[in-house]
User: Which sequence fits this backbone?
């Protein structure tokens, strides 16, 4: 499971152009503690929630939010994460985030 995510992080680093203070690779690496939850194999952990909160603090401007939105959208699609779990993650971690982890979000309209 972890090897697959690491491989996807490497691919995303080549595909998604960084236009903000955090690259897509860094963003996906940051939420690695949530992998088991997002794939549907376990519950939300404290390290996962800490990662969500930290990631939420990194992007503030519209271009940064859009770049992060595109990154998370593509990652969600490629990794076949559980979409319901992804949508629930910020609420479970008590984090209000403007970036949904959802493969159906339109990042161009949202930001």
Assistant:
């Amino acid at each position: 499971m972890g090897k697959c995510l690491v491989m996807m992080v490497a691919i995303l680093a080549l595909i998604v152009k960084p236009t903000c203070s955090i690259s897509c690779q860094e963003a996906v690496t940051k939420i690695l503690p949530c992998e088991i939850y997002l794939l549907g194999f376990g519950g939300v952990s404290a390290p996962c929630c800490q990662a969500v909160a930290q990631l939420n603090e990194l992007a503030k401007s519209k271009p940064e939010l859009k770049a992060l939105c595109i990154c998370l959208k593509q990652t969600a699609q490629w990794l076949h994460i559980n979409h319901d779990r992804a949508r629930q993650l910020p609420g479970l971690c008590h984090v209000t985030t403007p970036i949904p982890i959802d493969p159906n979000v339109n990042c161009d309209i949202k930001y």
In short: The helical segments are 2-15, 24-30, 35-38, 46-58, 62-79, 83-92, 107-110.
